[in-house]
What does this fold into?
Amino acid sequence: MKKTPVRAPQSELDPSTTRINRYEKGVHQASIEVAQQLADVLNVPLAYFYTEDDELANLLLHWKQLDQQTKDAILKLIVR
It folds into this structure.
């Protein structure tokens, strides 16, 4: 999976840039609390960090921007 790295100002993050880079490379695994902090700072859903599918990651990024009618229509198409 080739997600584009999302960047935030360093001052908003507790972990160092080096540590974040290690998370991205898989050297370290962030705790759920750290992942939630990163998600909050980057304004992405927590689930974004855990999906292996780029299309699903893209859907997760855009889901909260959709109105309820659109969400319902999408769900109707995929849930049978």
In short: The first helix runs from residue 17 to 25. The helical segments are 17-25, 32-42, 54-63, 68-78. The two ends are 28 Å apart (CA to CA).
